[in-house]
Amino acid sequence: MSTAQPLTLPGIFLATADRVPDRVAYGIRTATGFTTRTWAETLLLVEGVCAGLRQAGVKEGDRLAILSSNRHEWMLMDMAALFCGVIVVPVYPSLPSHLVQKVLADSGANTVAVEDDRQLNKLLKCREQLPELRTIIQFEGEGAGLPGWRTFESLLEEGEDRRREFPGEARELAAKRQPDDVFTFIYTSGTTGDQKGVMLTHRNIISNIRGAQERYHIDEQDVFLSFLPLSHIFERMAGYYFPVSVGASVYYAKDITSVGEDLPIAKPTILIAVPRLFEKIHGRILENAMKGPKVKQAIFNWALGVGQAAAQRKLEGQEPGALSRPGLCVADRLVFGKIRERTGGRLRFAVSGGAPLRRDLGEFFLSVGLQIYEGYGLTESSPVISANHPGHVRFGSVGKVFPGVELKIAADGEILARGENIMKGYFGRPEESAHTIIDGWLHTGDIGHVDAQGFVVITDRKKNLIVTSGGKNIAPQPIENLLLTSPLVEQVMLVGDHRNFISALIVPNFSLLREVLGLHEGSPPPGTQEIADHPEVYERIDKEIQRLSKDLANYERVRKFSVLGSEFSIETGELTPSLKIKRAYVLEKYHEVIEGMYLTSDHKDRLAG
After folding, report:
1. How many alpha carbons lie under 13 Å from residue 166 in its C-beta half-sphere?
2. Which of 130, 222, 229, 380 is the most buried (most CB within 10 A)?
3. Count of domains in the chain?
4. Average of pLDDT values for 215-242?
C-alpha cells in the first residue's frame, strides 16, 4: 500500500469499491449455500445505512455499539458509522446483560445495533441504567416497538429516501475523516481485570494493514471465511479491514459452531482463526484415526511420518527428496488430501492469533499440507506486533516484528512495542494510559525474547508467572501447552503461586475417553461427571503427565491434579469472549478443589467439578 493511497478506513473502502465494483465483496449464508454481493452493491448499502443514521439523528462523535455475531449487517453498520464520523463500540454477543451495560455505560453509547430478540432482551434488562441511549436498531426479530427502536430494514428505507435527495452525502462525509480520528473503542476481554476501552485511530489500524499487505500476498482473488467475533480486534483487522483494502471476498459463517459445515461450501483460500479451532480439528482427526480399523490406523501413522519428514525439509528451506516424493504423493492421496478437502480444498494458509498456538499443532498441520502462520499482538497494538509469514516460519515463535513496529525487551523480560499501530490510550482512563504507554513504548505485559534469527518468542503473561514458596519463577503457559499435546487433555490450568509445588486443574477429552474406555455403548451414555469420576481416567492422565514431564525441571512438574467434570467456557465464566482462561476467576471458582490438592497427602486426589 503506497502513501498515496487513502489514509482512513472509509477512504480505503471507497477506493476498493471504485476499483473492483463487479467483484464479489461478501457472501451471506443461506439455508442452501451462500448468496453474494458485489462491491458496487455493498457500497450502495453502506451509503444507504449512512444516510439512515443521519436521518435518525446520529451525528459525528456519537458512540454506536454493535451487539451482534458476525453478519453482513455488522459490516454495513460499522462502515456506515465510520463514514459519518461515529465511534463504533463492538460488544461481544456472548456477554451477559450486566457486562453489556458496563461497556455501553463506560463508552457513553447513545445508539445500539442489536442482532435479534435475544440480544435486545439483554439490552432491555439494563435500559434504565443507560440514560444516554436513545436509538436501538435491530437486524432481525420481532423487536419491542419502544421509543427510538427501529428495524434495520426501516433504517435502510429511510436512508434510501435521504440518499436520493442527497446523493453525494456519504462521500462528502467520508472525505472529512482524518487519519488521527478515533474511530472505535474496543473493550479488552478482561483476562486480568476490568474491561478497558482501547481508543484506536484510522492511522493505527492502517499501519497494521500496510504491514499485512507487505507480508502476505493477498488480492481480490482470495476468499476469507469470517467466524471469529468481529468484536475482537484480530478478526476486525485481519478478517475485515484487511480484505477490504485488497478487494478480497469475505464469506460469513452461519455461526461459530458451523465452521465445519461452512468450510466446504465457502471454499476459502485464507482462514483467520484462534488455536482453539485447530485444537478441535486436530482432536477430531486423531479420534477418527484411532476409531478406525488397525489397517486404517497404520496407514494414517505411516502417512503422518512421511508428512512430518517433508514438513521438516520445508521448514529448512528444502524441497522433498527424490526418494520421498512417491511416498508423499501416496500419503497425500490416501490421507492428507481428504483432510484438506474438509476445509474446502482451496486453503492457501491460515493465520492463528489471539492465544499461543502449540508447536505440535503447527507441525501437524504443515505435515498434512496446511500452513499456519502464528502471530502476536494486543488490542492496544491494532493488533499485530509480530507474525510468521511466507519464507519466515519458526514454530514455537510468533514470528518476526511486523513492518512499521519497533520492539525491545525490558530488563525484566517484558516485551515493549512502539509504532503507528499503538493505541491513542484507554478511554476515560488517563492514568492507566500513562502507565501502559511510557515514552511512546507500549508495555505489553508479556514476557519473551528475540532469538538470534529475529523470531519473537513469548514465554508467558507477566501477571501469570507463578512464584513458588521456594522462590522458583515458573511460566505456566509452556507447561500447559506441553500437557495439551496429550489427546486425553482438553484444557488445563496450572496452580502453584506461593505454594510449595505445582498442581493442575484438568478438563479431559470427554468424547475420546468415552471411546477409549468403551463407555459409548451404554444407554444413555455416561455424562462428563461420570467420565471424570471413572477410576481409570486419573490413572491414564497421570501416565500422560509423567510421560510428557520427563524433560522438565523437578520444580516445574505437576505433582497433583484434579480432573474436572465440565469444560471451561464463556457461559460458565472461566473463559473470556476471546477464549482465554480467566485465571483469577478459575482460582476463585475452584478454590476448594485447589485447597484439597494441597491439604491431602494422597496424590490421587480427584474431584469432578
Report:
1. 15
2. 380
3. 3
4. 96
Full domain range(s) for residue 573: 465-599
Rounded CA gap, 87 and 66, in Å? 11
Give the angle 577-583-588 at the CA atoms, nearest 5°.
110
Contact 513, 525 (CB under 8 A): no
Nearest-10 crossing angle of helices 39-55, 152-165 = 90
User: Alpha-carbon distance 441 to 100, whole Å?
Assistant: 31
Instruction: Tally the C-alpha atoms within 13 A of residue 522's C-alpha that lie toward its C-beta.
Output: 11
Least Cα distance to 233 among 375, 380, 96, 30 occurs for: 380
pLDDT tens for residues 141-198?
887 778 889 999 999 999 999 999 999 999 999 999 999 999 999 998 655 457 899 9
How does pLDDT run across 444-472, given as a tens digit for each residue?
A: 999 999 999 999 999 888 888 888 888 88
Residue type present at position 132:
E
* Distances in whole angstroms, Cα of residue 288 to Cα of each of 259, 297, 510: 18, 9, 15
Q: What is the DSSP string of 541-574?
A: HHHHHHHHTTTS-GGGSEEEEEE-SS---TTTTS
**Terminal C-alpha separation, the chain:** 52
Dihedral sign for Cα atoms in the order 248, 253, 259, 260:
negative
**CATH assignment of the domain containing 418:** 3.40.50.12780
- Does one domain contain both 399 and 547? no
Residues ≥6 apart with Cβ < 8 Å to 178: 8, 202
Give the CA-trace dihedral at 483, 489, 492, 497, to 10 degrees.
-50
Burial of 219 (0-12, 13-18, 19+ CB in 10 A): exposed
For 407, the 3-state DSSP assignment is strand
Q: What is the pTM assigned to this prediction?
A: 0.84
Nearest to 188 by CA among 96, 102, 281, 71: 102
Query: How far is residue 490's CA from residue 259's CA, in Å, rounded to a whole number?
Result: 20
327: its cell numbers: 511416498
- Domain boundary residue, one of 201, 225, 240: 201
Q: Under 8 Å CB-to-CB from 501, ≥6 apart: which residues?
A: 468, 555, 559, 560
Q: How many C-beta atoms lie closer than 10 Å to residue 410's C-beta? A: 13
Number of neighbours of residue 451 by Cβ within 10 angstroms: 11
For residue 214, what is the enclosing H or E element? helix 202-215
